[in-house]
Amino acid sequence: MHDTVDLEARGVPSVFVATTEFVDGAEAQARALGADPAAVYVAHPIQDRTDDEVRALADEAFEAILAGLVA
Predict the structure, then answer these.
(1) Sign of the CA dihedral with 33 first, then 65, 60, and 52 last
(2) All structural domains of the chain with their residue ranges
(3) In this predicted model, what pLDDT tens digit does every residue of 2-23 receive, in sequence order?
(4) In the chain, what is the straight-line distance between the N-terminal and C-terminal CA atoms, in Å?
(5) How far apart are CA 6 and CA 52, in angstroms?
(6) CA 37, CA 39: separation in Å to the nearest integer?
(7) Is residue 57 within 8 Å of residue 49, measured between CB atoms?
(8) Residue 1, SS3?
């Protein structure tokens, strides 16, 4: 979250990506930083997924990430 907020402050379009497990924490951190970054959440967990499953998550999130970058 800090990196996303910092990049946005520098004029670099950014999107925060995390798993759904971290929605509450990420939103609380964004509020604490006084920011409202673009965020995309994917299914949790990640670590036990196969490469193909991770690629599928990325494919599913791609349009939302792209939209956050050009908004």
Answers:
(1) negative
(2) 2-70
(3) 999 999 999 999 999 999 999 9
(4) 18
(5) 32
(6) 6
(7) yes
(8) coil
Torsion of CA 17, 22, 25, 31, to 10 degrees: 30
Residues 41-63: pLDDT tens digits? Answer: 999 999 999 999 999 999 999 99
Query: Is residue 71's pLDDT more than 90?
Result: no
DSSP 5-51: HHHHHTT---EEEEEGGGHHHHHHHHHHHT---EEEEE-S--TT--H
Angle at which helices 2-9 and 23-33 cross, to 10°? 40
